[in-house]
Amino acid sequence: MVIWEVDCYRRPLRNADGQPLWELLVCDRAFEFTYGATAPQAAVNAAWLQQELATALQKSGQSPAEIRVFRPQCLSLLQVAAEGWSLTVRPSRNTPTLKRWLVQRSQWYPAQPEYSGEPYEPIALEQPAPVPMSENLWGEQWRFGSLSAQDLQESLVYEPMPFQSVPEEFLPLKLGLPSTAAIPGVIIDAGRRSLPLAQWLHEQQPAALNYIPGAPDGVILEAGLVDRWVLTTFEDSQVAAAGQQFRDRQQQAQGLHFLLVRPDDSGMTFTGLWLLRL
């Protein structure tokens, strides 16, 4: 499946008239196809983007199954432009090739005659403060846990459940992790609230879980493009130690982790599974 990763945003560049320049960047996941174009900020609109996408399609020779966009500021504009070519635009933080390219280009801009010298963070996004989850959604109990890469990939992902998000590129063995690697996760036994909780999570599009030490400690759910939710807080020292182990295992597993929702701890039924990566 051909996936394009696309960004269109202001860069630290200005034209001869002093107008800020915006840049469109398009790449596929393997970085085998790339396309770029710039225009003064005043000229960047859906019509301009639609024409540039047409040029990119012509040069590529194939239409992508979907276009992934990680920057909220250009999402709606790209969605409108893509409609003219029946292209699907999906908001997603999972745009690793594009983000690497943006970082590389940020080191190239200072050598350009149009360079403005203004501060520039190529992939930084403004994030709101985390918002507490509704108590009506919270389950009966939760814990940090882990599964071996083999058990996760060859067993759990095949269990029947109403909600599941397991990107193929996140599968642990695809990442080159050994079958015995411990993949950390957060497991929620939600009882009767299991289905409403999984439905809500599905709507939020989970992206990552972060253990945050503090007073109190907590687990933050990163979702959508920039949304943040307080999944839980706690002051128990044993849970904090498990949280530190969760974070250590994340680093050892190339950022891979999971969120599992089930009615109870019987291991017989599951409601939702999200395979996530920092």
Automatic annotation (TrEMBL):
Pfam families: Tab2-like_C, Tab2-like_N
Top-level taxon of origin: Bacteria
Annotated signal peptide: none
Classification of source organism: Bacteria, Bacillati, Cyanobacteriota, Cyanophyceae, Leptolyngbyales
Domain RNA-binding protein Tab2-like N-terminal: 3-105
Organism: Leptolyngbya iicbica LK
Domain RNA-binding protein Tab2/Atab2 C-terminal: 121-277
Any coiled-coil regions, as ranges: none
GO molecular function terms attached to this record: RNA binding
Protein name: DUF1092 family protein
